[in-house]
From TrEMBL, chains A, B, C, D, E, F:
Top-rank taxon: Bacteria
Record's protein name: HD domain-containing protein
PANTHER family in UniProt: 3'-5' EXORIBONUCLEASE YHAM (PTHR37294)
Location of the HD domain: 172-300
Species name: Aeoliella straminimaris
């Protein structure tokens, strides 16, 4: 495709448009015509559109389709989008597997994976903004933001988990930003409420803890086209211990004082609260207690909202087959409501 | 004491002042002088001052002290406060047990019980203010505020528990206000975050649930001079079920729709989340999930802050003898800090 | 079917008889004759008989069978029962879906659901008889029997549960009657045994508690042709709390004294004994203790007996796939025993 | 005491009576008169009366009292009971420690231990009567009654436990008789109810199981003056396994068929239902299920009744310091009731 | 097969060899040739070889294959082993089902079941050798070895369990030998380490306990061609209690002293340590503690090693579908390693 | 004490000997003579002897005793040991608090703390010897022994715990050496037994893991005269995580390969096996499984042996008041045995 034309995306094309774009071969099946002639039905997709159409046995692509095209592989296509009686179809002019160099043209192997509905860059910026405002201790703030900056690229795409909650691209940022917002609101509230506490409840430490509580996922998980998978050390050691490693490694040589660092480590270690929930130690500081609740609520809330959104039924309750393993109450549809939707 | 003078309070008196005031006889002990003559040492107190002094055997009050004065009873005294070598003392002019009619002069049998550091009236007003702002559904708002108004006097003084957390006068209001604030912040956050949820996350229901989650304590506990104690129905039935009773009884004849009422009942029923923590049903709505976390965090936070404040030691950790049954981290005192306090 | 003849039932008909009756279309399948001609095989049933037979393509009902007859619907038929080489068959003269007015002629949408082997009316009467004999306190007895009379129709058919134990029509009555019998025997025994107990063990309260312990199922479950299903409030609140509601609502205005009512409420609340088994409070009275054991034994006994009866194997033990999730011992069949049965 | 007079008992004596009797020295304390002369205050008791009185330093028994009398030992006394200003007192004529031969005169080392309020012989006879009526299989009946007859003497006095429930003399018989009665009532009920069960529910096996479920206490406990204590094998092996031993040893050479014996062993093994409650296997037969409930109810009922009777307070609830470790509801005293008692 | 030739085994035959041997018909499937002619594909196996080959429709065995040969039955074959293009095949000369008398010729119905890779006779001998060396008390040694000698034949083949660990022929011996070795090493270590313990830690009792800890499996399990299955008493009573029975029965009349026997019984009873793991009593002697750990480690180790060996995947971790229900870490294959294997 | 004489120890002195030695003032009480003159009774001790004697009011040390001597402080004494009617006494010639420089003369602030009966140097050497023999991988061996060498001084004295097991000086070495011996025996056994495992069971990794499993106690505990106490990080983070830190810090720059290091970290993390026992991850390698059992057995064995040795009673069982919270079986004393001891 040396005579390259502007790269577009499948889901942005309009009927009649000819474009170069990247797509995943999502499906390929052998079918037969009424008079018994075999042909293939293929589906190409990107994150926003899936197009299915036949490759007839007399097509110029018939042999390649049969022998070479692999479901699960990405291709660069030059094709025209057509609106037929059978829905949208592609008339393929050229097609080849993607190459390493296509990344320069914007090819992203994660292009088809589900992703957060929030913009990762905006979430990242808000996180930095919160750190700026809420962490007064300069050494502490630089430690936290430094860790983020060192792993910016991964953090922008990483899911929060393999399954369970926020298990889609940028899910990590979405979850941790919510936890950080919750933490900030709550800790500022309690800092003021218990203004005579000694030591006083520390807004900066709590916010820093919220930002870093799951940072070990950087080492526990590997993000791939099919979602996150566990690393060997992730399974054998786990993100709680690995997150503390990242913090301790980054803290070497900084001016963060020892007690602050210890409190921050403790937030990471204690954020799941009970041994059977994964934490070797329970929260023993107000800051660790707040981060635990801010985290637990956000994780369960996302599971609950997703359970309602994804439940296939239309009853008052979802089934138990969701991340919370319990029914969620949706309530009755108002009369007429079903039709409007 | 017909020739009544202005009623003052013990803790407001200044040395040399003569005043009429109410006080609790907190202690009475027989001691002996160096030459073997017995005398009594008595302690009178109100919420802000305790004064201990001798009643000598030749005092005009000696016989009454020995035969009539009961530790734990309240007295009306006319006495002069004196600053002696042995600390503050009272020279009693007149003394008699309090009478029913003293309540008109401001006698309050709860006068010596520990109480919230926050003003109950202000907390009550803030609660009403939040209801006004955050519960849009008028019928629902009136249901909730109506319940509060019907029990205003009790709610102003009721503790939140017999032991555990907020177990002092007005502790109920302090705790529930915190839970309501937390809930409001969190539910507004998630309402906006999941703006496309269907049904949408309901700010008004969550705030109403927060305000009413512990309302059953009205029937579970009785507030007395020695703190809260359990009623028979409180022990046999419990505040979760009794709170739902109060709600259902108040809802009869209102225009709150059935589904809203059911969601509100569910918040009360589910607010302790697990059967072994006291809830027959787990949270099955986003609103119930939020109230659970808002409540659990506030209860544990108060226990933690109180554990630090009340721990008799001065180590880095409190002992385990507190409501959370675990050590809480206080950290090291800075050099020189101890002296200043 | 204006020229109506006497209504009979399918399972009471004898070969050669022509009758009008109601039946459920339980199955409908397309088959083909040896020479390739398609036909339908249909099955009609009531609670006591299922008849399967072909509808040939040249039948007068062929078109209706193909296009209109729905598996799961009830029909009124006029048909002759015939004993053929292929078993009992029906020669249909007339057929139409049931109509609302058929209920007057005895049509019952629950006619095919499994039901208790005991007569509901007889069970109901025995329950009333026990109340009459064992509950001496007149106000209490009238409260309990009044609740039964107000819900007589539902109680006569309601299952005791959706799954687990006694999950068939009138299963509620069967279970609760057993619990009431057990309770009466046991409480009379212990009343006499501990004749010097103060307060004495109360036969009437225990029997009333047995009769009402599961009364909340009236609001927790809805009985339909396919068995019981949960209501929204049943899932969000549960039958223990709802049963107490029914009791409290019925008690308004009666002369049942407050302590008796409280003890009765407590029996309902505590009858499952442990939080993880569903009860917010453990039994704190002898009467509540007895009802718990009477109930728990009867539920498990029915599960055990049903597990043996329904286990498809013929080994010494049933499999674990039953409501108790454990093997039940059946023992060895004696030689020759199998043949006799 | 060669010139023996009729032996009486301390609690049957009347003021002014001189008698020979056995008594336990329950207490001995050194006190001093107003003018500083030391004397002893001693207490002698039997099961029905305790008498405390001084032994002055000039008494003929003064030296023996000081040097020889041991608290916890039994003595034979010839003494006169006197009604003094200080209550009942004894004027001792003769006193010596009990001897082995005193047992012929009715001395019983268990004479002071608390005991069942029911007559052991009558309970034993009722147990035999039930066996006669309810166990039809002759070999089985003889096996069970044979075990009882072989251990008749121990069974008549043995407590049911060291602590917990029925922990007094003849407590074993009282408890096991109750369990057997409960079992018989329940199993006859279910035998009839599930008359079509295959195999049918076996009344004789259940009743035999009830009678033997705790028989291992014969080897687990040793009965002494101070109540029951554990044997080494009782602690290391336990009464469930040891009861099965007794049964198996007795069954050798009888005609009880193997399956019946196995079902009976299983009842013993499974009667505590859950591993953490002491049973290695859960009930897997209807008979074992019934015996479990009959046993569990009786044990808890006795704890509850005893908790109410022994609670030192007079509130609506007992404290938690009882065998059930929970408050038991006693209810309000009626006005005036307290005075009458 | 009157003209019997030397009996061989399938897995010892070489291509071209004609032999008489026993084999299991492991599989039989109907297939069709390209031109539509049906034929059978059969698989015969012994413990070391499985041979699959066609039985054409014109074969002399075709009718018998279709009508008589049963998958799961054993046959005696005279056949020639041939190495074809399609792998090893059998040309069957004669075939008949095995008969009772074939056992004399070495037929063993367990011939195809998986078995320990260790020689049972050698393991048995080592066990006796350890008893000889490590159990000094002669009466005790003879008790233990006597039990083994009485059940020698069963012990040589018995698996250790139906599922879980060592669930193959001779698995009992393999497991118990490992436990005995572990126990001996550990108890000799601790005997020496705590040489001043009183009583001293007893090597002989611990080793005897190790040898007998699972002896009840003799009564709990029945070994058959398809592996071990539970007896009725095994399910209702269990191997822990039954093992103690075997010991006690064997101990009657021996000179083993009572305390030693009690300690040995306790080891059996306590070897699974916690009630929920199957032991009614926890280890209360050092010897019981050692046997528990020796046993628990060996069982889990075999599960872990088997999980790695049998996991179908090739990732760094096994799946969770193994006896331990958790992933096991296998680690990365070195580059090139896969090819070598 | 310039005219210094040879330093001896209190417990090595013989009656009549005059010596210089260090001792702890363990007790000091005011008593009075028969004629009412007050005097002090003081106790001085070292690890092997405690001497109690009076300081009369006319003694030259009377004023210092009263005003300066502090219980819990160490002193250097020059005194003569005398054997009086009241036991051993000291006639003090000179006495002063110990000074920093006394350490050069052998003063050790831990001199009175209980300590292992094994020689720390010998245990340390055996540990190094095992490492030498059993860890073949040179980089791994040097990593492990390097950690030991860097902390040699602390490891020689450190207890294994504050309470529970091996909670005395050098208890760490004693425990870890036992675990390492157990591990070595067991892993060599299983390495050979499963010689075909892939990967093979790694003797060196298991032994290294045993040596390091508790190394985090270096940071969790601080050893003082009154035993071990927890550091702040020990309570907030815990020795499992801190031990992994020590390992990872020491591994930086070594040639230990990544997979070996990960397996070693996993042994530390998993050595307590279950979350509720303290391990965030369960053993997922054979080596981790072995170290867990070797550790758990040794800890419990020491508790059991200590419970028997320290139990104050003389019954067949110890009480439950020991580290295992259960009775331990000691057995009957042989007749005559009691007298000899």
């Amino acid at each position: 495709m040396s005579d390259a034309i502007e790269i577009t995306t499948l889901h942005e094309m309009t009927p009649g448009e000819l474009g170069d774009f990247f797509a995943l071969l999502a499906d390929k099946q052998v079918l037969a015509t009424k008079d018994g002639k075999p042909y293939y039905r293929v589906s190409f997709c990107d994150a926003g559109r899936e197009v299915s159409f036949p490759i007839w046995s007399d097509s110029t692509h018939a042999a390649a389709c049969r022998d070479e095209w692999q479901v699960g592989d990405f291709y660069k296509l030059r094709a025209e989008l057509r609106d037929s009686n059978y829905g949208m179809q592609l008339e393929i002019h050229r097609i080849r597997p993607v190459e390493e160099s296509d990344k320069q043209d914007g090819f992203d192997p994660l292009m088809c994976a589900p992703r957060s509905k929030f913009d990762p860059e905006a979430m990242y910026d808000e996180m930095m903004q919160i750190a700026e405002e809420a962490i007064e201790d300069e050494a502490l703030r630089e430690l936290v933001t430094g860790i983020y900056e060192s792993h910016r690229e991964e953090l922008l795409v990483m899911p929060a988990a393999q399954y369970n909650h926020h298990s889609y691209l940028s899910g990590y940022l979405e979850h941790v930003l919510n936890v950080t917002r919750n933490t900030r609101m709550l800790v500022e509230q309690y800092h003021q409420l218990y203004s005579d506490a000694d030591p006083s409840i520390d807004v900066g430490v709590a916010v820093a803890g919220a930002m870093l509580h799951d940072i070990g996922k950087l080492r526990e998980l590997v993000t791939g086209p099919a979602g996150a998978t566990y690393t060997a050390s992730g399974t054998l050691i786990g993100h709680i211990l690995q997150g503390r490693d990242i913090l301790r490694e980054a803290a070497v040589g900084t001016e963060v004082d020892a007690d602050t660092l210890l409190r921050l480590e403790h937030i990471i270690v204690a954020h799941q609260r009970l041994p059977e929930w994964g934490s070797p130690k329970p929260p023993m500081t107000p800051e660790a207690l707040i981060v635990h609740h801010a985290d637990d609520l956000d994780a369960k809330m996302q599971m609950m909202v997703a359970a309602i959104a994804e439940d296939p039924g239309d009853g008052e309750f979802t089934s138990k087959r969701n991340a919370l393993r319990q029914p969620i109450y949706r309530g009755k549809k108002e009369p007429g409501e079903a039709e409007e939707e």
